[in-house]
Write a structure and sequence with these properties.
The chain has 9 helices and 15 strands. It has a 7-stranded mixed β-sheet with strand order 3-2-1-4-5-7-6, with helices on both faces. 22% of the residues lie in helices and 18% in strands. The chain has 2 domains: 197 residues, 3-Layer(aba) Sandwich (Rossmann fold), CATH 3.40.50.150; 166 residues, no CATH class. Strand 1, helix 1 and strand 2 form a beta-alpha-beta unit. The longest helix has 17 residues. The radius of gyration is 22 Å and the shape is globular.
Length: 383
Amino acid sequence: MRYGSVCSGIEAASVAWHGLGWRAAFTSEIDPFPRAVLAHHYPTVPCHGDFTTIRGDEYGPIDLLVGGTPCQSFSVAGLRAGLADDRGNLALEFLRLAQRTRPRWLVWENVPGVLSSGGGRDFGSILGGLVELGYGFAYRVLDAQYFGVAQRRRRVFVAGHLGDWRRAAAVLFERASMCWHPAPRRASRERTAGAAAARTRGGGGLGTDAELDGALIPALCPTLRAGGNSTGGDRPPGTDVDTADSLIVAHALRGEGFDASEDGTGRGTPLVPVVAHTFQTQCGHATEDGTGRGSPLVPVAHAFDARQSAVPQPISCMRVRRLTPRECERLQGFPDHYTAIPWRNRPASECPDGPRYKALGNSMAVPVMRWIGERIAAVDQAG
């Protein structure tokens, strides 16, 4: 399958669909840092700027067009100008590009707020545009937490197929889910409330959606594990297996605040901290260079791994806990250090955190895109 990607960001689609053997004919992005990420990982794929200027025959025929146009005008956290906003109007430009390129498949993504924007008229206009172009469609809200990542991230996905709504519906709706035989309800039980929630600022990012459950994090997902040693890794130095002593919650950063600016001036948007009760443990320090001069590794409350031999001693203070860029990569399903690239005359090891947080927050969740790609492949194969 040959696809074109617009509003590509850092290309969750390409990461998700590489295993299917699909190849990108082009990507399209205007933000400098995501463009640098694309150039670093996909140097042979043409990266267009403004996708509204792509001609129908510019990159040859494509089988699928995918894009998640800006969500700020549809989000309930914004002014909700909808299609009247230039960013919201890019959803209609996505349809105009589909008219020029005429792919068999379309995949469009946005926030759930698009369903109610303009009293539902905005979303109706988008779906009506699909019909006028000859595409049958289906849409569904998918939550990333059910696809193997440790965050609640609900997004609307629209699948379109040229001339046949049944194929689009077969992609987004499993046959078993239509039988009206719901799975047995899990028994209710008492449990602690969620230990922490991540809040950052920026449209459509992890800030509004990343939530950590109150269950033991090591039992929930390996995403947030970090070794209790100076390497900050998932296992002690010199070993290649996880041990009970290494399975603690990832390290806490320093509490004096985080500079989210790209130039180090401190004028960037501050990242709102995650505050949680902590336990005092002998956990080492969270340094990447092994010097031990970093911030102590401190597990958050209710996430202490009972397999550890140390007995936690409660302390009365609160401590700042923020997600690291690598943890955000894992929360979105990207490989570790995917966004750590050479940037503005700095090596990859010194890539600033600010643009990495923003790019990851604006991206799609890779496991969700992988599922959609697998469903499209299965429908195509079935004929």
